[in-house]
């Protein structure tokens, strides 16, 4: 047992750090060691509890109702609001779409209206549940176009979606106009606040300019907000809120059509560990309203300082003025975002590359946490050095013949052998094909540049092939 724990620690040393404010994607760090400890201990205490049956574990039911109540208070919810704790933002989105679909069994070919900046989880929901996504281009500020959204609603529409904020550019959609248009047609409106839901209310309290997006907006029927982001809870918790119990009811699944216990689920999962819920409850109780206001103040101070520092760097520009804690940067052409990301990694910082899409150039994405504040000078120094190094090396290029070959490919017609050759050419696997060793390079700029040239469909196909090769059994353990 001790040896296994030692091995775990050794393996974890190669992972991105989850504390220290230097990982600006995937993790959200409060910078408060006691809060992290409380969350971990609560997860461990409830790791063996099962949320499948709330009557068997009444403490889990109590914690869930209290967590939902805290979220409802924060989001201007009426007394009629109900909610469910899920495993994360994607599950909350899936359930919002599934519930909207199942609420309208009279519609044979259901659709949902999405701005092109809506999270990819909605496309996953469309794939799973057969709800056609109707994609509406956004405005030049990357916010949803309410008139175009309204025009896209038709008799097949079961859901209209807005973001608070959108992930890629960090801006809040005009929820008031979008929700109003949906309500006028008798259609549900879901606000995806998985990123901003636990920080935007405090931003407004601190006097920052935040567009209206909560249940205070008429026509908003559901909201998703993640707790493992800016509520700084351990990974594995989100909340899906519905304005009324009637709106939520199609979310539930029950089946007595077998000889075992009657299955009754409020989420996609049946068995689910009580650990994440307990961790979220403990962190939320410990931080409290005043604690969250303090960490919100810290994270927005960090955002403002980072933006001010970037304004001094001629090679970088903020893509759109962020409404929340997410910053997207593009370059002036003297260097490329992918090389900047590599250079930041060399300096101990992880920032996320984003590919070009629908007129938006490739960008550098920063998810700022409260813990980043203490390290902003170091971050800006590293960013300045990274940009200088990227300018010196010049923008990464892709061989024109390779670029032409990628552009001509049909992802639906590729064989496994074709995929293996492409993955090897991209530097993602060794030349021996699926049985060969992974050969992921330390620097990803050339790989990302190749992916950036590919169509979205080809990009998806290549990365699926890579994941397929990556997820193979380790038989020698």
From TrEMBL:
Keywords (A to Z) from UniProt: Aminotransferase, Lyase, Pyridoxal phosphate, Transferase
Keyword Transferase part of the UniProt annotation: yes
Cofactor(s) the protein needs: pyridoxal 5'-phosphate
Family to which the UniProt record says this protein belongs: Belongs to the group II decarboxylase family. Sphingosine-1-phosphate lyase subfamily.
Annotated GO MF terms: transaminase activity
Protein name in the entry: Aspartate aminotransferase family protein
